């Protein structure tokens, strides 16, 4: 008996076809991510989850950028994105659209991301690889979540965190398939 294959999107979709894709009401806000490779990885992850938009802020690399493109592997063409001078500008724009702001950062107010019920729509804010999410952005948050760590280190690479949290949000919204 043959095994059914899952449907793979046509990799040669036109810009119009891409713009008509159903997207999850999930946004990434990249708060001063210093590595273009991490930004590129966020694009690849966003493409995998068909998220609504990436908000690229501050010193974060944005297209066109050679290092970003090397990791994104074309996802900059399939994922909507917008550049903002500051993260607070991005967050205020999202809030004005009724989008919940959820900071992914270990704080005194954060809860385990597995225990948080993510509402639709939500923007996940990820911070600088060394200093984390800016104080200004923290002040604008609706919710705080963290990824529990069981080893010596207290953080994950930001690109890994993007994928881990995104897939938990999508699991909650879509249930097991």
From TrEMBL:
GO molecular-function terms, A-Z: RNA binding; RNA methyltransferase activity
Listed InterPro entries: Alpha/beta_knot_MTases, rRNA_Methyltransferase, SpoU_MeTrfase, tRNA_m1G_MTases_N
GO BP terms: methylation; RNA processing
tRNA/rRNA methyltransferase SpoU type domain mapped to chain residues: 26-167
CDD domains: SpoU-like (cd18097)
Name of one Pfam family that matches: SpoU_methylase
Keywords: Methyltransferase, Transferase
Designated name of the protein: RNA methyltransferase
């Amino acid at each position: 008996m043959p095994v059914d294959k899952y449907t793979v999107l046509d990799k040669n979709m036109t810009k119009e076809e891409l713009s008509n894709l159903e997207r999850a009401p999930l946004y990434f806000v990249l708060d001063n991510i210093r590595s273009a490779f991490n930004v590129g990885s966020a694009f690849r992850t966003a493409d995998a989850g068909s998220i609504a938009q990436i908000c690229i802020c501050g010193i974060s690399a944005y297209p066109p950028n050679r290092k970003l493109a090397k990791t994104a592997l074309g996802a900059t063409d399939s994922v909507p994105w917008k550049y903002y001078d500051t993260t607070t500008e991005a967050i205020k724009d999202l809030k004005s659209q009724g989008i919940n702001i959820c900071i992914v950062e270990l704080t005194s107010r954060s809860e385990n991301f597995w225990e948080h019920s993510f509402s639709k729509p939500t923007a996940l804010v990820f911070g600088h690889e060394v200093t984390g999410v800016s104080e200004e952005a923290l002040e604008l948050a609706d919710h705080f979540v963290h990824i529990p760590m069981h080893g010596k280190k207290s953080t994950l690479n930001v690109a890994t965190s993007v994928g881990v949290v995104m897939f938990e949000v999508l699991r909650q919204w879509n249930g097991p398939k």
